[in-house]
Amino acid sequence: MRQLTFFAPVIAMLMISCSPISKKDAELQIAANTATTQHMSEDKFWELIDKSIMESNNNYQVQVVSLKQILAGLAPAEIIQFNNTFNALMGAAYDYKLWGAAYVINGGCSDDDFEYFRQYLVAHGKDKFYQTLKDPESCASWMKTEEDDNWEGILYAAAGAYKIKTGQEMPKIDQPKYELKGQAFDEDTVEQQYPVLAKKFEAE
Q1: 185: which DSSP letter?
Q2: What is the mean pLDDT of residues 46-75?
Q3: At a CB cut-off of 8 Å and minimum separation 6, what does 73 contact?
Q4: Which of 30, 47, 139, 167 is the most exposed place for a label (fewest CB within 10 A)?
Q5: Which residues, listed in sequence order, are joined to residue 177 by a DSSP beta bridge?
Q6: 45 and 78 in contact (C-beta within 8 Å)?
């Protein structure tokens, strides 16, 4: 199973359960609270994601290309910071409750597919990301299956932008591994845990 990693100071923030999202609670600031220059602040991170959504007219495949171009306009250090924050957010979503939801949505979900699902989730912006962390069934109104929209792609935008900017591969940072949170689901009964998602995606 693939493992994405992030700095130890982030772990405490990621283990906090997502309470109802008020304006104050939405400012979780995973990256900012690490007090390190290795991460881009979430405010700036989500601004860049929103810009890519707007420029692509909410077309995910176009957004992957758009985000790479946007990031290529940043300094190399900022591209690395963006990537580290992206990985931290991927870690925040590394939870069985989301994996179960992805399983129901997609009619099955391997470890690779779950990584792609989390990429796709981050790509849809701050509000949808945190709302889905809080309530996985809340994504039913906008989520598409991997077959319909190919979830994979946006994770690699930063590496592509760095190559454009510098002509070199983006350096890798040795970060501690994170653990998959929550309790494993039973494939035979998982649809019962997500009735809204099951009803929608069984009908499609």
Answers
A1: P
A2: 96
A3: none
A4: 167
A5: 5
A6: no
* Amino acid residing at 123: A
How many other CB atoms sit within 10 Å of the CB of residue 166? 13
Give the predicted TM-score (pTM) of the model: 0.81
Q: Rounded CA gap, 143 and 19, in Å?
A: 22
Q: How far apart are alpha carbons 198 and 186 in whole angstroms?
A: 15
What is residue 63's DSSP assignment? H
d(CA 147, CA 151): 8
Residues for the chain: how many in total? 204
CA distances from 184 to 14, 59, 96, 99, 196 (A): 18, 32, 6, 9, 20
Structure tokens at 63: 């957004």
Q: How far apart are CA 15 and CA 23, in angstroms?
A: 20
Integer Cα distance of 137 and 128 in angstroms: 11
User: How far, in Å, CA of 72 to CA of 66, rounded?
Assistant: 10
Of residues 33 and 63, more confidently modeled: 63
- Which two structure tokens, joined as six digits, stand for 82? 């963006």
Query: For residues 170 and 163, is the Cβ–Cβ distance under 8 A?
Result: yes
Q: What span, in angstroms and rounded, lies between the C-alpha atoms of 118 and 121?
A: 5
Rounded to whole angstroms, the Cα distance separating 152 from 164 reads 20
Confidence of residue 18 (pLDDT cuts 50, 70, 90): very low
**Whether the Cβ atoms of residue 98 and residue 132 lie closer than 8 Å to each other:** yes
DSSP 8-class letter at 180: P
